[in-house]
TrEMBL record, chain A:
Signal peptide positions on this chain: 1-24
Protein's UniProt keywords contain Transmembrane helix: no
CDD domains assigned to the protein according to its UniProt record, in alphabetical order: PBP2_UgpB
Entry keyword set: Periplasm, Signal
InterPro entries per UniProt: Bact_solute-bd_prot1, SBP
Family stated for the protein in its record: Belongs to the bacterial solute-binding protein 1 family.
GO cellular component: periplasmic space
Domain of life: Bacteria
Subcellular location as annotated: Periplasm
Record's protein name: Carbohydrate ABC transporter substrate-binding protein (CUT1 family)
From TrEMBL, chain B:
A Pfam family: BPD_transp_1
Species: Tepidamorphus gemmatus
Keyword NAD assigned: no
Transmembrane segments: 24-44, 87-108, 120-141, 222-239, 276-296
Classification via SUPFAM superfamilies: MetI-like
Family: Belongs to the binding-protein-dependent transport system permease family.
Keywords: Cell membrane, Membrane, Transmembrane, Transmembrane helix, Transport
Protein name, entry field: Carbohydrate ABC transporter membrane protein 1 (CUT1 family)
Domain ABC transmembrane type-1: 83-295
Record's GO cellular component terms: plasma membrane
Length: 439, 307
């Protein structure tokens, strides 16, 4: 063997050796939206860096993909382009559409490889979250962070109005009564409102469904993607409540208000009660100067709220290695430790029940009783909008509720129109499924 | 003789022809890169959208060709609403912003320290990106605590829900658009005014023409080419800029601020109805072409060209 060949062989061995670990690392992407503030994006980068250092055989690239809606768009584009991310933090109400379109992989095989059944795997997560995670008995979404609507109230204003802050309104009747006492007028001008809630798109659909559920309703068919129940007595009752708050009792401002307007009024001490997400707990805690407390969303028939938030899902079109690496990441991100950390950082629930077993989390709940109330309400939570064309079907309701809040339509007519609009949007799916047994 | 002349003519003709061919070849070669990109990223998508608008998809992937998408589009009350909003929005923003721009330009025509300062003030909104301006106005429009309501409140006015009231929301967005665009159009008018010879004004003054007469008889007719240009870009701008609508109202409340471009987005990305989105795109682009052609022709019709 001459010198040249020997050195060539040495280079080959050396480069081979140095390349080995790099080749073994499976490269995957994580798409993540940030629904609230910028510092969440930084924290997600920190978490992924930690995951990568703890898992030398996997290299995750976190890709910030904007809002939930933008993440939905970008995920579809990535799937169409044949470059799907191994994990996406996707709004829990969008996952069903991926299932309908055959674009998402269930986690069942990966769960089975660990010797677990889907039911055993899901047992770690709060029961309220199962509805949006399990579709046709398969695990399509692993809950990552979740929220529900919550009633926030100003303690000082309660005391000034002669209300007992230890007994916040629990029923709609008590809510209206308290709101009337909390509303303060100066001539035509209202200086202090009894109730406010965000009524812009997305938020409004969520709050309306909370009121519908509190009235005993079930606003969509949880077993079939082509059916919603808008034109129903339970929904009419919910809309009547909103209508009466604005026009009968005049305890809530007319028209549409965004979350900023609602929180501005609350932080300024000019709002008695507001409905806002539990995901905003940290935000309210940081910005509210006066004492405030939280309570369940008031009920008419029963206590019930929809969940919100996001789950991890796995698009189709990945290699076996990528699937395994993606599942490794999903398990890590939803582990009790990381789940609890993220929950304390953001204000969202930890979907993993065992996150609340840690001493850190127990101490946190003692220190922040508002987080405890939010968690207790989870026992009364149910699943969130998931239909064919979710956004459009939800908007069909929201447009009509906005018309009611603006005094343009009466609740009964609004619901007839909402039902018709939603039915029209779902018709192609209904005709191809429920109304057709031939294919 | 005749033969030679003929062949001479023939020769010259063919030489000219080949020269034309040559220049055409060179032109084509030079334009080729742009043409390739135009074809790839403009004309091909246009063809695709046109084809897509004629493709009728049913759930499950079966497709056929037909006009169903257009039928559904014209039957959709939301499309009619978006088109109507768009017309109100276009007229209600283009007319006031051009009138304001013209007034500013004529008023600030002379360059003094004061006028150049004022010009800067009017051009400032142009430099703020529409997205940033929308974020700003989300605070300005806030009921009770926003800048607008705060100062109106100190003057004794009540609370106004500027973008949460379906009767008012579109007008609030129009106010924002006029604020944003008037300064931009003023720039064009200032440039147009520079081109009007001073002698015309001087002789008008000598003959005793008042300011209003000078404006109507000299400034306005001679600014007509600028006006034609500004009207067309203003129309295109209000139809293609929807950032503020997306950020401030999302088309709401109850679709009261929805416009064609956002309607197309909703059909494509919220309802996954690509056929309907494509049909709406075809109709919108056709309307834009007609508007541009008609407005350019009518405005150019009475233009006085000097020289």
């Amino acid at each position: 063997m001459n010198a040249l060949m020997r050195s060539a062989a040495a280079v080959a061995v050396a480069s081979g050796l140095s390349l080995t670990p790099a080749q073994a690392a499976t490269e995957i992407q994580l798409f993540f939206p940030v629904p609230v503030q910028g510092k969440l994006a930084n924290e997600m980068e920190n978490l992924v860096a930690r995951f990568n250092s703890e898992h030398p055989d996997i290299k995750v690239t976190p890709v910030y993909t904007g809002s939930y809606d933008e993440t939905n768009l970008k995920t579809r584009a990535a799937i169409k382009a044949g470059q799907p991310p191994a994990a996406v933090i996707m709004s829990a109400s969008f996952i069903l559409e991926y299932v309908i379109n055959g674009e998402v992989e269930p986690y069942d095989e990966l769960i089975a490889a660990e010797g677990k059944t889907p039911a055993e795997f899901m047992d770690d997560f709060w029961p309220a979250l199962h509805g949006n995670a399990l579709i046709d008995g398969k695990v399509y979404g692993v809950p990552f962070h979740n929220s529900t609507p919550l009633l926030y109230y100003n303690v000082r204003l309660f005391e000034e109005a002669g209300l007992d802050p230890d007994n916040p309104p629990a029923t709609w009747a008590e809510w209206i009564d308290a709101a009337q006492k909390l509303t303060r007028r100066n001539g035509d001008k209202v200086e202090q409102w009894g109730v406010m809630m965000p009524t812009t798109y997305d938020y409004l659909g969520w709050i309306t469904s909370a009121l519908n559920m509190s009235n005993g309703g079930q606003y969509y068919n949880q077993n079939y993607a082509g059916e919603v129940y808008y034109d129903t007595p339970t929904m009419l009752g919910a809309l009547n409540l909103l209508h009466d708050m604005v026009f009968e009792y005049k305890v809530m401002p007319e028209g549409v208000n965004d979350a900023n307007s609602v929180t501005s009024a609350f932080f300024a001490g000019q709002l008695g009660t507001m409905i806002l997400s539990t995901g905003s707990l940290s935000f309210v805690r940081e910005n509210m100067k006066e004492p405030y407390r939280v309570a369940f969303v008031p009920r008419n028939v029963r206590n019930a709220v929809p969940i919100g938030g996001a789950s991890l899902m796995m698009p189709k079109g990945l290699s076996e290695e990528q699937k395994k690496a993606g599942f490794e990441l999903v398990k890590w991100l939803t582990s009790p430790e990381i789940s609890g950390h993220w929950s304390r950082f953001t204000g969202y629930f930890a979907p993993n029940r065992h996150a609340y077993d840690s001493d850190e989390m127990k101490a946190f709940l003692v220190e922040h009783p508002d987080a405890k109330v939010a968690l207790d309400q989870l026992a009364h939570a149910g699943s969130w909008f998931a239909t064919y064309n979710t956004v459009g079907v939800r908007k069909a309701l929201e447009d009509e509720v906005q018309a009611v809040l603006s005094g343009k339509k009466d609740p009964a007519q609004a619901l007839k129109d909402a039902q018709a609009a939603a039915d029209a949007l779902m018709r192609p799916y209904v005709e191809a499924t429920a109304l057709s047994y031939l294919n | 003789m005749t033969d030679t002349t003929l062949s001479g003519v023939h020769l010259a003709d063919s030489a000219r022809k080949s020269r034309i061919h040559e220049t055409f070849g060179v032109a084509l070669l030079l334009l080729a890169p742009s043409l390739v990109f135009l074809a790839l990223f403009t004309y091909w998508p246009v063809v695709q959208v046109a084809w897509q608008s004629l493709t009728v998809e049913s759930f499950g992937g079966a497709t056929r060709t037909g006009l169903d998408n257009f039928q559904r589009l014209f039957a959709d009350a939301r499309f009619a609403r978006a088109a109507q909003n768009n017309i109100v929005f276009a007229v209600g923003t283009v007319v006031p912003s051009i009138v304001l721009a013209l007034a500013f330009a004529v008023g600030l025509q002379e360059t003094t320290r004061l006028t150049s300062g004022l010009r800067t003030v009017f051009i400032l909104p142009v430099m703020i990106p529409l997205v940033a301006a929308s974020a700003l106005f989300s605070f300005i429009f806030q009921p009770r605590f926003g800048l607008l309501d705060y100062y109106l409140g100190s003057l004794g006015f009540g609370t106004t829900n500027w973008i949460g009231n379906p009767d008012l929301a579109l007008w609030s967005l129009m106010g924002l658009t006029v604020w944003k665009n008037a300064g931009y159009y003023m720039l064009f008018f200032l440039a147009g005014l520079q081109a009007i010879p001073d002698e015309l004004y001087e002789s008008a003054r000598v003959e005793g023409a008042k300011a209003v007469q000078r404006f109507r008889r000299i400034t306005l007719p001679l600014l007509r080419p600028t006006l034609a240009f500004v009207v067309v870009i203003a129309l295109l701008q209000v139809l293609t800029n929807v950032d503020h609508i997306i950020l401030l109202t999302g088309g709401g409340p109850s679709d009261s601020t929805n416009v064609l471009l956002y309607y197309i987005y909703q059909q494509a990305h919220e309802n996954y109805d690509i056929g309907l989105a494509a049909a709406a795109t075809v109709v919108t682009v056709a309307a834009l072409l007609v508007i541009s052609a008609v407005s350019l022709r009518t405005l150019e019709h009475g233009i006085h060209y000097e020289g």
